[in-house]
Amino acid sequence: MASPNSVYISEGLRLRNKLTKTDLPTVPEEYRIAYRPVDEDDDDCEGYDFILCASAANYVTEAKAEIARLAAELETLKIEGPARVAAAKQEARDHAVASTLRHSLVKAGVKSGLVEGAASLLQDENDFEVGESDDRKKKRVVHARTERGLLPVDALVQEFIQTRGAAYLERRAAPAGGHFNQLQAGLKRAH
Q: How far is the C-alpha of 152 from the C-alpha of 155, rounded, in Å?
């Protein structure tokens, strides 16, 4: 076995391979677990109480490095975390506004190719507030902030279509000629 003066060296750490009880307090506390009591099978350990287990010392070194890495990561999360949460909330809000606008525009009869453009136009011109419904399902509720106060998105879309959005609407199919003739014939019979 190694001489009594041998030293374990790893990443700037120097630990003696053999210790007495009085030497143990000189070892850093986290590395004391790497020492085991000497037993009668250990060679060259007469007069010593503890012997270093190099694999345990390596484990402690690796664990300390992992703890330092995790502590640095935690500090980064403490700094970046609130910004990430705010960005996620903003993204969820923007998605709720966009999907509600698209749904209302489709429901109002806007041409499918113009829905995105009309939604973008309404988003640029208005501020929106997103809240949760009062029922148990807690659905997202979107309102537009206008000069008249908060409006449901459906009301905003109807107002848009009535004032300047008629060109965005699908053309309604005219009744078939046969249907019109039937109506005329029914009116003639009534007189």
A: 5
